[in-house]
Amino acid sequence: MEGIAPFHVMDILARAKALEAQGRDIIHLEVGEPDFPTPEPIVRAAIRAIENGDVHYTPALGMPELRRAIAGFYQDRYGIDVPATRVALTTGASGALMLVLGAVLDAGDEILMADPGYPCNRHFAQFIDALPVRIPVGPETAFQLTLELVESHWTENTKAVLLASPSNPTGTLARDEDIRDIAALCAARGAVLIVDEIYHGLVYEGSPQTALAHSGQVVIINSFSKYFHMTGWRLGWLVAPESLMNGIERLAQNLFLAPPTPAQHAALAAFSTETQAILEERRMELKVRRNFLAPALSEMGFGLSGLPAGAFYLYADVSSFTADSFAFAEKLLEEAAVAITPGRDFGEVSPEKYVRFAYTRPLPILREAVARILKFVSA
Amino acid sequence: MEGIAPFHVMDILARAKALEAQGRDIIHLEVGEPDFPTPEPIVRAAIRAIENGDVHYTPALGMPELRRAIAGFYQDRYGIDVPATRVALTTGASGALMLVLGAVLDAGDEILMADPGYPCNRHFAQFIDALPVRIPVGPETAFQLTLELVESHWTENTKAVLLASPSNPTGTLARDEDIRDIAALCAARGAVLIVDEIYHGLVYEGSPQTALAHSGQVVIINSFSKYFHMTGWRLGWLVAPESLMNGIERLAQNLFLAPPTPAQHAALAAFSTETQAILEERRMELKVRRNFLAPALSEMGFGLSGLPAGAFYLYADVSSFTADSFAFAEKLLEEAAVAITPGRDFGEVSPEKYVRFAYTRPLPILREAVARILKFVSA
User: Fold this and answer.
1) How high is the pLDDT of residue B2?
2) The CATH number of the domain where B160 resides is what?
3) Residue B1 included in any domain
4) What is the DSSP letter of B78?
5) A55 vs B230: CB contact, 8 Å cut-off?
6) Do A124 and B254 touch (CB under 8 A)?
7) What's the gap in Å between the CA of A112 and the closest CA on chain B?
8) Which residues span the domain enclosing A317?
9) Residue A98 banded pLDDT, cuts 50, 70, 90
């Protein structure tokens, strides 16, 4: 338990709620949850299933028709042929990560991951007594691991490497050649490359390939929460090599029984033409927000290395304003009524230099936020 | 992974499906899932919430109003005053067990539990590198742990004891005095008593008290799956001492983010007078089934030590028919088209002597099952 740090943003959130209770109008840019409702076709599919009484346990790896639908999604979107037997539904991407790490790592094994990164990743590893090895990354590699970084941190205990593309908190993509090279290195040394593609649907430049295109040996983690706007439904998925599926299934039976059934029926409607049109419209809206917020922050003096390609986050260097990004976030909330996430939630590499902005609010609110922040940093 | 055994009933189930594909009419008495639909008021509450767009993340420990509703349930049903701050919603009882064991046990710690028992329990412990210590129990203690059994297996590494009342697979209750004494022993020695009350609503003799009535230090695990007929929704809860709640919350934030939101809204309707009337009617129906099936099996020569007080299981000694209960279950399926669960799924104590019957099918089907079994054992 000692290694499992609290989320510092919870302090910010608690203070924001207290201020709201006093009547303050707080702009929430700390929330990693899209502000869009679940698309109507998905909602209708859920209600239909619930009305039909389709709310019993499903198989541990999910409904076969949904596993096939996800396999079809890889075919349609990426041109990748992956059999449905390699796809498993999970209770959120969290469930996928738990199953994959449980199937791949023993106590004492090491998993390499980027710092900064999503904090739960290292906590999952610690939970099963594996050792998260956090590799410092910065703007020079777009906050992503490279083959060189992975090689230089490799030990005889290294059993897995975790990439996140796009990354939370930075929104940056891993390079195709790095994914390919790291996958080959892992395969050659009997380790597993896990690629978190939770935000992969939310990319605003080009059409990056899934890591599945680069190697048949990688494990993919994905989610219906972000691109598909189904956060509270708690449904994710994984794609793994056939050789891991038996172990993953046994773990899923024991640790979860099965993912939530209403969510699975809902998700069956996620790949329809109608839903995809809604999702793409929202992706465009998120791109507009990014294209507004990123240059506005840069102009004020927030350090951004380029326009991050995906997700809905900007990881901004605040060292031109402060030597303590947590105090900066607290003060921004108190004085400007804008809530953001301090860097220390994402790792140990210069967390005092960074804050994360989530553009999960509509453009007019982002404009107001920028006005407030400008006044705050100019004061 | 090696310690995580597959469910042998999956072999039975797979064979049952194959036979069904050939047109055989299989009676499923292996399924630990009630055959009743989710009660209509719960279904309506879910649909209303989904239509309203209430499908975003909730706090990690669940919606405050549902935590209060569960606290109210303890007041109304058991006369126990427990603050809502000690209640946490979880992703099924599985999620509750994961959080509790994660918060209580470190690698190498021992947890005492009855054998036979629910197989996932020991797998959860192994998953976090704790050591499940399985204490052989039999009919002489109604398959439950007693103070003496717990004391005689206690070591300096013992950090938790797990009771299940009613038990899966036996349906038997732990005695109040044993719960009280074991709780006191745990408190005195700095360990935690965890009581699985997943089937506590399904008791057919008297109105047993929750373990919360016997000690403020126990941890309770419960579920909306069984008594509330909400299996596929994946919602459970725990009640823990205040001192554990901070650790449980941090783990919940990291491992699960939050339990499924549609299920939480649905469950808000679980405690209404209207729903409770439906649930009690079904409990009576399950009692009628038990009262039919148990004596019918006894008469045929299946060994049952009394009428188990709760759950929907009968754990029957088949040693008058066979020395290999797994082969017996396989043959019963092939020749009599009745699927049951072999003892080896529940532990290492004479598993070859036992099978589990689940009375999760309506009375006419149970009658047909009894006729088939009679013909089979008389042949």
Assistant:
1) 67
2) 3.40.640.10
3) no
4) I
5) yes
6) yes
7) 19
8) 9-37+276-378
9) very high
